[in-house]
Write a structure and sequence with these properties.
The strands form 6 sheets. Strands 4-5-6-7-11-8 form a 6-stranded mixed β-sheet, covered by helices on one side. With about 325 residues, the protein is an alpha/beta fold. The chain has 3 domains: about 10-40, no CATH class; about 45-205, CbiD-like, CATH 3.30.2110.10; about 215-330, CbiD-like domains (Rossmann fold), CATH 3.40.50. The longest helix has 18 residues, at about 145-165. Helix 3 packs parallel to helix 4 (about 145-165). Helix content is about 30%, strand content about 25%.
C-alpha cells in the first residue's frame, strides 16, 4: 500500500498490524496516515483547502443551497468537504484531523460570491497581509500561498462552469482571524492582521512539524525521543515511531543528545548525521556530497566508522539512516 499524498510505500508489516479495514481504507485514500504499530491518524485539511471549499460552495449556492463540495487537492486526490451555503454565501470549518493543537483548528472561513465578467479572489477580514517585501510577496499582499490560490481558483472555476457563469468575484474572510493568528508563526515571518491560507498538499499532517524554540525542553521532557535533522526525516519518524516523541533538531544534534534523559534514536537522511559524526567523511573521496558518496563502494565502511565514533562518544545512542522514501539504509551501532 502506498500513501497517495507523499508517494511513500507502507511496509507490509505495518499494514498487517492494522486490524481495522476502515482505518486501512482511510490510509489508502490519503486521508489517514498509517504508523508502525498499525494505528491510523486522520489528516486534517489546510486553510487553503477550507477556503477553496467555501469559495466553490458560495458560487454553487447562487443556484441553490449547497451542503458539500468535491475538491481536487494540490496532491492530486479528490475529497468531499462539508459546507453550509445558500444565496451566494458559504461557510466552511477547518478540520484539524487528529491534531487538535493545530493553531487554526476549527477556524471558520466564509465566502461571498457574485457573478462577474471574470473571476477575482478578494482577501477580506481575518486574512493576514505581508508587512514587508519577501522573495515571493510584496508588502500589502494577502498571505495566500500559490498552491492555495490555485486550489481556490480551480474550485471557483469548476463552479462557474457548472452554472454557466463567465466568472465570479469571491470575497473570503476569517471571523476572528486576527486573534487566531497570534497563535501562529505569522508575525515572525512578517504577516499581520490574520491567518494565512496555505497548503502545499491541501492536507495537514496529524502532528506538529515546526522547529520550535522549546525544542530542547521537549527533548528533556521525553522518556523516549527520536531526534531528526529535517522535515523528511520527521515525517518518516512520526510514522515509524508513533509511541516516541519525534523532535526536529536540525543541526543541534549535540545539544539534543545531551538534553535527552532516556532512550535516544538519531534518525534521518545521512548527510547531516554523518557529517556530524565524521566531519571529514568526504575527505579524499572525490565526492562533493554525502548523497553522491552513498552511491560508491566506500560508503558502507564510512558508515561503519561513523557508527563506531558514535558508540564511543554516545554509549546507548541508536542511529537509523534512511533514504527519501523512508527505507532504512543503515542502522546501528
Amino acid at each position: 500500500m502506498i500513501d497517495p499524498v507523499s508517494g511513500t510505500p507502507y511496509p507490509d508489516i505495518w499494514v498487517a498490524a492494522c486490524a481495522s479495514p476502515d482505518d486501512l481504507a482511510l490510509a489508502a485514500s490519503g486521508l489517514g496516515v498509517l504508523t508502525a504499530d498499525g494505528t491510523v491518524r486522520r489528516r486534517g485539511i489546510s486553510t487553503g483547502t477550507t477556503a477553496a471549499a467555501a469559495a466553490k460552495a458560495a458560487v454553487l449556492s447562487l443556484a441553490g443551497p449547497c451542503m458539500e463540495v468535491v475538491l481536487r487537492l494540490p496532491c492530486g486526490i479528490k475529497i468531499r468537504v462539508p459546507v453550509e451555503a445558500a444565496d451566494g454565501a458559504a461557510r466552511c470549518r477547518k478540520d484539524p484531523g487528529d491534531y487538535p493543537d493545530d493553531a487554526t483548528a476549527d477556524a471558520m472561513i466564509v465566502a461571498r460570491a457574485v457573478p462577474a465578467p471574470e473571476t477575482a479572489i478578494i482577501a477580506g477580514e481575518g486574512i493576514g497581509r505581508y508587512v514587508r517585501d519577501t522573495t515571493r510577496f510584496r508588502r500589502g499582499e494577502p498571505a495566500i500561498s500559490e498552491a492555495a490560490r490555485a486550489a481556490i481558483l480551480e474550485g471557483v472555476g469548476e463552479a462557474c462552469g457548472k452554472l454557466g457563469l463567465a466568472g465570479a468575484a469571491v470575497t473570503l474572510a476569517v471571523p476572528g482571524g486576527e486573534v487566531i493568528a497570534t497563535r501562529t508563526l505569522n508575525e515572525r515571518v512578517g504577516i499581520k492582521g490574520g491567518i494565512s491560507l496555505l497548503g502545499t498538499t491541501g492536507l495537514v499532517e496529524p502532528w506538529d512539524d515546526h522547529l520550535e524554540e522549546s525544542v530542547l525542553a521537549r527533548v528533556a521532557a521525553a522518556d523516549r525521543v527520536v531526534l531528526t535533522t529535517g522535515r523528511i526525516g520527521l515525517g518518516h519518524a512520526r510514522r515509524r515511531y508513533p509511541d516516541a516523541d519525534a523532535v526536529l533538531v536540525g543541526g543541534r544534534i549535540c545539544e539534543a543528545i545531551a538534553a535527552a534523559p532516556g532512550e535516544v534514536t538519531l534518525f534521518g537522511l545521512p548527510a547531516l548525521i554523518l557529517k556530524y559524526l565524521l566531519p571529514d567523511i568526504l575527505a579524499g573521496t572525490g565526492c562533493a556530497t554525502v548523497e553522491e558518496f552513498a552511491t560508491t563502494p566506500a560508503f558502507p565502511p564510512a558508515v561503519a566508522r561513523a557508527f563506531g565514533a558514535a558508540a564511543a562518544r554516545y554509549p546507548g545512542l541508536h542511529i537509523v539512516l534512511i533514504d527519501r522514501s523512508g527505507a532504512v539504509i543503515a542502522e546501528g551501532p
